[in-house]
Amino acid sequence: IEIELLGILSPLLILHWEHGTGSPLCNTPDNAPCVLDHPCASNIMTQIRNQLAQLNRSAKDLFIAFSKAQGKPFPSDMRKICSHGFIKFPPFHANGTEKDKLVELHSITVFFVFSLDDITKFQKTFIRKDQNLHSKLKSTMDILAGLRSNMLCRLCSGHNMRPTDPISGLDISQKDWFHKKKLGCELLIKYARLIPVLARDF
Ligand SMILES: *[C@@H]1O[C@H](CO)[C@@H](O)[C@H](O)[C@H]1NC(C)=O
Ligand SMILES: *[C@@H]1O[C@H](CO)[C@@H](O)[C@H](O)[C@H]1NC(C)=O
């Protein structure tokens, strides 16, 4: 199975995302060579840092827009309700090599994208009217897709590897409405706390 590493996400990858949680990212063995169909931008590490900075700038607004859209009791009590969950992002070690940090950042990105994708679908279906939230979710997803594509390019061109860890997102499927909303806000609080660290230390 071939997955495009560059540019627009391949239909296969989109298919994986639409299946939501639990799909391994790709099925190639660890030692399969990675293939690029065109070279990475020469300033790719700068692009990655800029994308992290962009995400960092919008994380808090995303979280606020999310809480407003959920209705009572979320907007007034968001921090109290959502600060003590058990959601854990994959780890990040600021002292790692470039390659280690790219691999860790890639896992974090995939976990967040899978989770956010499920939450976005729920929000779109049940909380239709909030255009502000939907446009913030969409622009975050767009930046994440670009970030991920840049990381894969750099890992392939600079380190001759592609990450193969199977990563799942949160599973929100069995939860009632309140708990779906709560998981969404827990995720976004954790993200808003993590992203400044990533933007600083990557
Ligand atoms: C990085 O720091 C962690 C503790 O924060 C330590 O366990 C690890 O050995 C360090 N790794 C390197 C490569 O220095
Ligand atoms: C991340 O955003 C926060 C507040 O929005 C800001 O104070 C901080 O300097 C930013 N960090 C980086 C590395 O851009």
UniProtKB/TrEMBL annotation:
Molecular functions per Gene Ontology: cytokine activity; growth factor activity; leukemia inhibitory factor receptor binding
InterPro entries per record: 4_helix_cytokine-like_core, Leukemia_IF, Leukemia_IF/oncostatin
One GO term of the biological process aspect: regulation of cell differentiation
Keyword terms of this UniProt record: Cytokine, Secreted
Top-level division of the source organism's lineage: Eukaryota
This protein's GO CC annotations: extracellular space
Cell compartments where the protein resides: Secreted
Main location: secreted
Alphabetized PANTHER family for the sequence: LEUKEMIA INHIBITORY FACTOR
Described purpose of this protein according to its UniProt entry: LIF has the capacity to induce terminal differentiation in leukemic cells. Its activities include the induction of hematopoietic differentiation in normal and myeloid leukemia cells, the induction of neuronal cell differentiation, and the stimulation of acute-phase protein synthesis in hepatocytes.
Protein name: Leukemia inhibitory factor
High-level lineage: Eukaryota, Metazoa, Chordata, Craniata, Vertebrata
